Description:
By secondary structure, this protein is of the alpha+beta class. It folds into three domains: about 20-95 and about 130-180, Malonyl-CoA decarboxylase, oligemerization domain (Butyryl-CoA Dehydrogenase, subunit A, domain 3, Up-down Bundle), CATH 1.20.140; about 185-320, Aminopeptidase (3-Layer(aba) Sandwich), CATH 3.40.630.180; about 325-470, Aminopeptidase (3-Layer(aba) Sandwich). The protein has helices at about 5-25, 30-35, 45-55, 65-80, 80-95, 100-110, 115-130, 135-140, 145-160, 165-180, 200-210, 220-225, 260, 300-310, 325-335, 345-350, 360-365, 375-395, 405-410, 425-435, 445-455, 465-470; strands at about 190, 230-235, 245-250, 275-285, 315-320, 320, 415-420, 435-440. Strands 1, 2, 3, 4, 5, 6, 7 and 8 form an eight-stranded mixed sheet that branches. Strand 4 (about 275-285), helix 14 (about 300-310) and strand 5 form a beta-alpha-beta unit. Helix 3 packs antiparallel against helix 4 (about 65-80) and helix 6 (about 100-110) runs antiparallel to helix 7. It is globular. The chain starts with a helix and ends with a helix.
Amino acid sequence: MMTQNSKTGFLDRALGNxxxxxxxxxxxxxxxxxxxxxxxxxxxxxxxxREQMRACLETRxxxxxxxxxxxxxxHAYLALDATGRERFLTILARDFGVDSxxxxxxxxxxxxxxxxxxxxxxxxxxRKTLKAPRVKLLTxxxxxxxxxxxxVDMRAELMxxxxxxxxxxxxxxxxxxxxxxxxxxxxxxxxxxxWETSSAKLLEKLIAYEAVHAxxxxxxxxxxxxxxxxxxxxxxxxxxxxxLIFVEVALVDGMAGNIQDLLDTGAxxxxxxxxxxxxxxxxxxxxxxxxxxxxxxxxxxxxxxxLAAEFKGLKTFATLSPAPGFRSWLDGQLNAGEEELLTAAExxxxxxxGAKNGGLKAVLANSDWHRDDALSEAMRGPLMRLCARFLTxxxxxxxxxxxxxxxxxxxNGARIGRLCWMADRSPKGLHQSAGMMINYVYKLxxxxxxxxxxxxxxxxxxxxxxxxxxKP
Length: 472
């Protein structure tokens, strides 16, 4: 079983590997040894750090010297504790940002410029002043071994810290812009991950990064990589052993309706040549620091094309997906007032099934409600109806679906195909989705039109049966 402690150990080893990669090229006035002696970065050490950052921005010396200075700075960052890293990043934000006075002067020069050449020169000067020095500093890490991974992880930390420190939001935005350029989908490689050919190190990362259905142990992972399964991931050339996002696929006969059967390690293996349906049952973003960089939008289409080319018998491509926002939305509706959510017939059926106080909120507060067959059957109608309403009618002001998984699949060109009752009975599935899952269907002929309809007009494409469920 991959516990939280073992996952933490895995990440600690990854951090250690990064330190080792830079040890041979690091070395400067403020380095890892100095940072380790005072890991919280007190003010005296903070001034030494500022000098080190200024040295990194100087152009003296050649490429080897520049790499050594950047490696020393990164090595120092890794040696600091959480308090020290926040202070490190705050110095980067406050002392190496855009010089507003220089911007004002450059704007004034542009206003005074006369003629094409002068305006062009003044415009170039203004653009230069608008680029914060820290961007140049961050870019230097790109040339180091594991430097891109270092920056991805730095942004993951920044995303958390920026919530309580608005100055760090500017650094996070700079870093997101850089990563967005470096992680353009055209630079990424789609690779299949297998039990036989992938390294143990990579397989261990799959276990650590799986975010939808936790991988219990090595036998569970081997089952997910069996001959009737496929796993694909995007990789970046500068992070060749780090999956960015990965998708797990089951090759089955007919539409899968629950995750319990799909993940059953005792289920018989199927001959993939005889299957007619590919079910995408888990899509995990492996790098938190790449959140908001939308290369994942191209993953499904590429995997569908890949599978269609390999197996000519596949006719249906669909997901078995959670609705992680459903229960939180429903709880908000219940807190606002339960009376209007249920019809009189639904309320009567739930009460007759033995619900205490007859209320939907009271039933859901009991984590074992689904084990009572009569009560579960009484809850089925109203919860399916409310979930269909949530998926098809609830949208943000910008037209995006409220549920993040729904938004992801509609952005990728899918349609909402079917709601599956009690499809995930795990504590997580019940807590997030009331046990329900959704089949999003990808039809090759519709993908582009569905994508355009949703992204440009906010139109939610759903089968008529799902829309019918949403009506009271």
